[in-house]
Amino acid sequence: MSFAEDLERCRVDLLRRVDGGEPVAEVAQSLGISRGRAYAILRACGYGSGPRAVVSPEQRELVVRIFGECGVVNRAATAAGLSHVAARRVLVLAGLVPGERAARGKPAARQRFLELVGQGASPKQAAHEVGVNPRTARDWQRGVKKSMSRRIHPDGTVVDSTAPTRYTTVMDESVDGRYLSLQDRIAIADGLIVRRTLTEIAAAIGKHTSTVSREVRRHSVDGAYLPHRAHQGAAAARARPKAAKLVADTALRARVEEGLERRLSPEQISHRLVKDFPDDMSMRVSHETIYQALYFQARGGLKREVERALRTGGTRRKQQRRSDERRQRFTDKMIMISERPAEVEDRAVPGHWEGDLIVGESGRSAIATLVERTTRYTMLVHLPGGHDAAHVRDQLVKTISTLPAHLRGSLTWDQGCEMARHKQITLATDMQVYFCDPASPWQRGTNENTNGLLRQYFPKSTDLSVHGPEDLEHVAQELNGRPRKTLDWDTPAERLRDLLTT
């Protein structure tokens, strides 16, 4: 039968069914023609890429009217003398049919491209529909990944286009030490030939016995383990991106969603599936896969409203740290108390201070306290503008600057946020700031004891902003005039006077 006869016999049925969304391959098979002949008929009728046709207002009006009467794109295109693509473009702009370019972004465009190819469209036509370069579309279809100037094929072949001479090399080594390399697989094959046990083979290549056992079970053909074929298969299975398990398997996804709605944890769902479907290996999913589906909605496959089923109510994974690991508190690196000179610890040399804040009601007001470790002399710092880092910095610099140079040894503080500008305090006063360890107030015990004495004047849950600089000076003088047992009943003021006079 000639092409003209095929065109006349199949044109109407082919266009009607393809326009209804049926795959070209299935339609061609049911009509008794080859897929190539079906595509040729479609191209002859206006399907396919080419220069964009110029559509006149009269043609646009005719396409809309005919499509409104019959609902068939091809009839509207034929009546207006346009290609199917041009007529469909007119209908998309008119809002009568959905646009084929609704997907945005590379992942969505890739998914749409694969859908079009699965429905029978050519890669070139599908690439044109989603708006990507045909070569990029071919890479998607073949599973080729792009990294910088390299193109990595599923079989492990790497093509680098930046070398003076284009070359191709096969990746013999795995991307990570967790995976088996080609040399490992060859060693497994050699060990099986000489009838070594799996335990001996695993010890020789530095892997666990179960790793070798799974490798041999998965990649044996008729009882024979083929290392090169196994390596190519592993490289192809490792290629990314790939559809998430809960996206591809609708039955499994439905069971997981049902479990989440019953407020089961992902771990409970995972283990329950094994009991409910002991012989169905397709109904297997790890709890980590379920968490990934919840946390990364773009590729997870679970509906966002199911997130509420998690007991914690979290929608994102928190960063986990080791017990001995702590995040840096401030932008400027802190110098910890463990690096403080030994002379500070034994109080032999004066001029080393401890500081903290006394906070008022609801944290809205505060007073900064400074205590000299040797003499127990106390200075109170007025904070009329609040106790944020910038204001505390300015007031501390102003107060410390009144001290003579030999009494500006160091300042020890806790890790409160008010000391975020500690580096600027050091630069302005030439006084090094040291920080206590977390939850260790005893490391600045002199200041803690003094703050307890000051609560006699500034009770807790009171507004400290009502106390002006004169009030703070009066309290400091009274506190510094108290005889102290640790000073052999001298007062802090007397001890400081002796230091200044000598």
Walk me through this protein's architecture.
The chain has 4 domains: 37 residues; 100 residues, no CATH class; 51 residues, no CATH class; 165 residues, Ribonuclease H-like superfamily/Ribonuclease H (Nucleotidyltransferase, domain 5, 2-Layer Sandwich), CATH 3.30.420. α21 links the parallel β10 and β11. The chain is 47% helix and 9% strand. The longest helix has 17 residues. The chain contains 24 helices and 11 strands. It has a 5-stranded mixed β-sheet, with helices on both faces. It is α+β, with helices and mostly antiparallel strands and 502 residues long.
Number of domains: 4
The CATH superfamily name of the largest domain is: Ribonuclease H-like superfamily/Ribonuclease H
Which class do the helix and strand fractions yield?
alpha+beta
State the distance separating the first and last CA atoms: 120 Å
Number of helices: 24
- Fraction in beta strands: 5-15%
Low-confidence stretches: 100-105, 164-174
What do the pLDDT scores average to? 80
Radius of gyration: 38 Å
The count of strands amounts to 11
Oligomer state of the chains in this structure: single chain
Structural shape: elongated
CATH class category label of the largest domain: Alpha Beta
Quick rundown:
The protein is α+β, with helices and mostly antiparallel strands and 502 residues long. It has four domains: 106-142; 143-242, no CATH class; 259-309, no CATH class; 337-501, Ribonuclease H-like superfamily/Ribonuclease H (Nucleotidyltransferase, domain 5).
Keywords:
four-stranded antiparallel β-sheet; 24 helices; 502 residues; five-stranded mixed β-sheet; alpha+beta
